[in-house]
Amino acid sequence: MRSRLRQLYCSLVFDRPWLVVALLMATLALFGWYAQYFRLDVSADSLMMEGDEDLAYSRQISERYRVQDSVIVAVTPDEALFSPPALEMLQRLREDLLDLERIESVTSLLDVPVFGDTRLTGISSDYDTVLTEGIDLDAAREEITQSPIFRNAVVSPDGGTTALQANFRFDERYFELIGRRTELREKQAAEGLTSDERQELREVSDAFDTYSLESSEQRHEDIARIRGILDQYRDEATLYLGGAPMIADDLVTFVQSDLATFSLGVLAFIVVALGVIFRRLRWVFLPLACCAVAGVIVVGILGMMDWRVTVVSSNFISLLMIITISLTVHLIVRYRELRSTRHHSSQARQLRHAVLVMFRPCLYTALTTIVAFGSLLVSGINPIISFGWMMVMGVAAALLVVFLLFPAMMSLLPVEKKDYGAASPLPFTDGLARLTDRAGGHVLWVYGVVLAVSLVGVSRLEVENAFINYFSEDTEIHQGMELIDQKLGGTLAMDVVVDLSGSGEEAPEEEEGGAWWDDGDEESSEAYWFTGDRMDELQRIHQFLDAHPQTGKVLSFGAVVELAEQLNGDEPVDSFLWAVLYDMLPDTLRETVLTPFVSIEDNQARFNVRVMESDPDLDRDQLIRDVEQGLQEELGYSADQIHVTGMLVLYNNVLQSLYESQILTLGVVLLAIMIMFLVLFRSPSLAALCIIPNIIAAGFVLGLMGWLAIPLDIMTITIAAISIGIGVDNTIHYMHRFRREFNRIGNYRETMFFCHNSIARAMFFTSMTIVAGFSILVLSNFIPTIVFGLLTSIAMLVALIGALTLLPQLLITFKPLGPEQVTRQEME
Asked: Between these two residues, 671 and 166, which has the higher pLDDT value?
């Protein structure tokens, strides 16, 4: 069977190269068409763990309280904030934002009620604002900056910066689709679906995916229009844009920019590196042609399947380039080696021999790399799983393209007239061979120390990371998040939802006719909920959350209770007065301070707690535990009454799963690669020795992250799989050649020197080409791109050095291929 496949391959690739090229070009045209549908998805949902109970609950709470997506415009006017020119500028800015189609409302300083000397019982729907003619702006400034509701939310404590919150329309369609999809999925898991329901689930899922993409594009347009509006006011004020939608959109923008800019930069560096190494146009053109064909095919498949790339998988094109170039360079070096040693063979024969001899090790390097990335499938985190599948598909595509296109193109190109003489030793590889020879067993001790230090570094790994750390300090988004943190109570938030106690004061009744509030109006009957006891309960929870050192502004009805007591002469407000106030509450204030925070029907309250992303001591997981435990221990709630949810909690769930996920994926990949080594080398001892350099390479990269305090997050978790995937390629290539040459030479050390001047050349050229290309990523403003470039380059170097020092010394020490046939003295 193997012989027939080999004959079929040879007859196709070497005898009909035009046919192979034509088929590949047709495939390229097909998938090139679908490449236009390639999309990035950096929505909040794309970073979450589907199936997370907190995710479902978060969606439920957002729908119940009609939580709207919003962005915050932080404005520091050139004039004093509470001056007529600044207020007039804010009024124009508010109107411009409201003119946007999908902006439903704008909450700002201009809407804040100014009570002045008004007592609580004197509040009416006709309240003053800073725009009221004749109002004392100095007094208004003093009142608003001291307000428990608006201080740190609408106005900074120093009264110099204000926030305009632009609220997007509540997305009914999103919750309709996600609700039905969740309902059908839960039924499918519990009892199964009918054929009609399965069809409906497919249709709803497709509709949600399509709608999600459309919404993302619309949101990008909205953010761009808002930024365009802000640009018109920059000569009157300092303005920054903040909020979760803006952060998500900027993530997309940064990733798209890096993909466009640095992909070209990486390509340019690789072209230069290949030119310097091989100094022949064909040896630059062929690797790039293979990269282009493989890349377009994979991108086209993703576009055809509507498989969207997330921030986690955004660098898959660069990794695909690494793998494709690695395979191509190994073929080039082997072919050139044959040209320099077999002068009497024809080019066709040399090409056929090079391709067929290299197919087996390249196949196994591809398979083991697939296993390395396939280990990400057990992570349990959607974007990481998707990244694993993309790389599995990409590696398979790279292998097929290289072993079809390279030999076909070489068969069509004119025969080289250049005579390759005997290759002179490479200083780097030859130096490592001599160093290993001189150091002997000390090499093992050095790597033992490296492993020990790496393990200490691994123990220092943390999973805490803030979105602000993804952006350089000189970027607008970093500066804006920092300003909003410092002056406006925090950027991102979590929701603390509390099922309140059932007891409350009895509402007063009239002597005849029943309850005073019961006039048949549902709104009036709801006033009974607002008892003095319950308001005290809301205030206690609010004060508890506000007192935590890592929380910023707490938005809740508890702040309204505090303000009401201030207006009541610092006296508690009884149930009767609360009911009266509820009926008198203006609609504009009700939508701002009541509806988003209180669910009368569910006897539940929502506390929106902003968190300081720029706080270097921020520990999300500890903060969540503090809130849950504190509400139970200090305020007497049961665990069932407390629900902490929201984006911060969902992202924290992902982060906390990374330790377990990293251990699981590393365990799976090392076990799978060990099995692959057993199949490839058919020797347990060889398999065990070959896995050691890969363990050290992965440990070194993770340990380095620990020592440098680079957090293990949803993006850096892939580095270990990458380092193993790269390292195992070097190990297989070196071991495959070493075993083959040892049977001929019969001496371990001499075989090492021979391999360092043959297969090690290809390993070196591949590694240096990739390191040169990825070094340009350090120029990015997006920190994950910089980290990815640096760690990938380090992984390449560590894997290369380990394969050229540790692996040969292990072979020399333990002699897994059997005793030497010839001693070095006999060879000399």
From this structure: 166
